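User: Predict the complex with glycinamide ribonucleotide.
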Amino acid sequence: MHNNHRSVVVLISGNGSNLQALMDFSNAGNYRISGVISNKSDAYGLQRAEQSNIPTTVVDHRQYESRDLFDQALSQAIDEYEPGLIILAGFMRILGADFVKRYQGKILNIHPSLLPDYPGTNTHQRVLDAGEKMHGVSVHFVTEELDGGPVIAQESIAVESSDDAESLATKIHEKEHVLYPTVASWFADGRLRLDGNDAFLDEQLLPETGEQIDAS
Ligand code: GAR
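Assistant: Here is the predicted structure with glycinamide ribonucleotide placed in the model:
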């Protein structure tokens, strides 16, 4: 793994609206997206990358007999771009322990809930079913525990009585598209660090729910 914090590889599985936001913001900025990798060849995000002249690689998980073999192929594809940071942006595969260890402190994920609440999938519907008043989005360091790595930053939204899973997804996406490029820039500027299970921003230990962003 390279020490160049500013070189980023983005991993996707689908639409790639977060990838788009990361690409748009990088024009202004302090990190460079060296490559985009998808485990699905028909992910729309691949077209977004190509439109921005960013190289892409497909590593199709169905072509590997085990998670280990898939992870190895993924590592190889990542290392070819020599990144200092791996950003998971709607990447819907679980990564094995060896993979996570190899890139310790250099993988970020965005998750559509206020972690540690609602890890896993289908978060919007689960939040509605539970009658929650608040929902939100978290960016966290990836560790071996699924959706369990230390939270770096979080932004909340109110759940209205008129909301359904789709309207919540739309609201969450709006927040994600600002939050993720912001956190990527923190990393690129060397302001973020993972130590064991603790995340530090500017050498300050972050609380369990990360930095609370209030963009409203
Ligand atoms: C985002 O909402 C992201 O938080 C979620 O997938 C969506 C991808 O959208 N990620 C997860 O659920 C990870 N467990 P995008 O492809 O348009 O960026």
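Residues 14-18, 89-90, 110-112, 172-173, 176 surround glycinamide ribonucleotide (CB under 6 Å).
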